[in-house]
TrEMBL record:
Secretion signal, residue range per the UniProt entry: 1-18
Protein's organism: Ponticoccus alexandrii
Gene3D superfamilies: Periplasmic binding protein-like II
Lineage: Bacteria, Pseudomonadati, Pseudomonadota, Alphaproteobacteria, Rhodobacterales
Similarity field: Belongs to the bacterial solute-binding protein ModA family.
InterPro entries recorded: ModA (IPR005950), ModA/WtpA (IPR050682)
Keyword Protein transport assigned: no
Protein's UniProt name: Molybdate ABC transporter substrate-binding protein
Keyword list, A-Z: Metal-binding, Signal
Amino acid sequence: MTRALPLFLALTLGSAAAAEQVTVFAAASLKTALDEIATAYEATSGDTIVLSYAGSSALARQIQQGAPAQVFVSANTTWMDVLQEDGLIAEDTRADLLANRLALVAHGEAAPVEITPDLDLAGMLGDDRLAMALVDAVPAGIYGKQALTTLGLWDSVSGSVAQTDNVRAALALVSLGEAPFGVTYRTDALADAQVSIAGLFPEDSHDPITYPMAALAGQEALAQPFLTYLSGPEAAGTFEKHGFAVLGD
């Protein structure tokens, strides 16, 4: 027993020394699923995952300004492209991870509607507001404006849009009843019991909703184990449970 104690201490100290902290900048719409995945990863790896959620545009700008992180998961390819052009991500670690659907969501239980050019969305709103993420910066807002424009509905509702910093903030306005309707991802609505899906936007009304992930430049060694886990079967099951479509290689 006496001779085994130093070996035990050495193994314990070695494990503690090997544990790492990985900071992940992730799109706000990933919060429910990614919180669960990070907890599971920490339990098996011993590493600590620090999650920072915001709109993809805000996160990308923080990275451009030198914010310390190892992993970035965006809700569109545009902001990942920007960082790649700036040389701020490790290009060979980039992969498309997930897909999503764009939804018209409502406070409480909503009667289902078909989202077509004939939808009287302005009439449904009346004098109330349509909650959306920033339509010229945040992916969910960009997709939403694009879809409404394609369907010929944007001009009739643009003056009623309440814009928020990220999609979960738009969801919160609907959840609290401060806006009767909003445009979010399908997965956001599934994460909030106070919100229902009135309808899904046609997939051809906007660009594909794709979530790419990558390690930041120079952070590959710290980032790669978690990136590998995110693309593995355990994480895939959690993402699918929360309504995401998992993309293959």
